[in-house]
């Protein structure tokens, strides 16, 4: 049984560059979530998908952020024109159905220099 | 609006002693409540959840939590702490309405178990 996987695990980039992260959910989980976690804080919700439809976006998700889940399986989160304030751990979670538990991946740690 | 409070940044317990990590919540409708644990440089691991039914919920690694509706609390407990329980613990809540699917997390409590 494979859990949620995320790639890359670490990313260092220069301010102004674009980055893209990938999340592979647990197979057959129809819901996929993105969260952001900064040091010393709990994860903050960014967005979620039910199958390929993006159903909710947080106000934290500025225009520079975009997420996709084109075939209802894996998802990508892109950050354009990165800023130092984007440095954080980006977590992906998946769940089957509304009431089911969200299972988290290991996260992608982003450092913007 | 949904919110979760974890009033203690850190809890220190001696190995073998009981531990409690506190959590209070505010949510519209019936709450769905969760506890997750995070080890250094790792994602979050699910420990247990309350959706309905028995107020005492048992979870992984010997942890349990008690749902108290009148006090809007969901404290995490373990009868006998292990050094390996040392980690960061997050309480989380989701509203009971079908449109409220996101989870709101508390700020976390660092649990330190001394040998």
Please characterize this protein's 3D structure.
The complex is a heterodimer of chains A (113) and B (115). By secondary structure, chain A is mainly beta. Helices cover 0% and strands 50% of the residues of chain A. In chain A, strand 4 (31-37) and strand 5 form a beta hairpin. Chain A is globular and about 40 Å long. The mean pLDDT of chain A is 92. Chain B is mainly β and 115 residues long. Helices cover 0% and strands 50% of the residues of chain B. In chain B, strands 2, 5, 6, 10, 11 and 12 form a six-stranded mixed β-sheet that branches. The termini of chain B are far apart. The interface between A and B is medium-sized, with 26 and 23 residues.
Report the count of strand segments of chain A: 11
Mean pLDDT, all residues of chain B? 91
CA-based gyration radius of chain A: 13 Å
Oligomer: heterodimer
Strand content of chain A: over 45%
How many DSSP H or I helices of chain A?
0
* Strand residues, percent of chain B: over 45%
The most extensive interface, with participating residues per chain, is: A-B, 26 and 23 residues
What general form of chain B does the structure show?
globular
Radius of gyration of chain B over all CA atoms, rounded = 14 Å
Structural class of chain A: mainly beta
Largest sheet features of chain B: 6 strands, mixed
Helix/strand order of chain A, N-terminal first? EEEEEEEEEEE
**Poorly predicted regions of chain A:** none
- β-strand number of chain B: 12
Please supply descriptive tags for the structure shown above.
heterodimer, A: 113 residues, mainly beta, 7-stranded mixed beta sheet, 4-stranded antiparallel beta sheet, 11 strands, 50% strand, B: 115 residues, 6-stranded mixed beta sheet, 0% helix
Summarize the structure.
Chain A contains no helices and eleven strands. By secondary structure, chain A is mainly β.
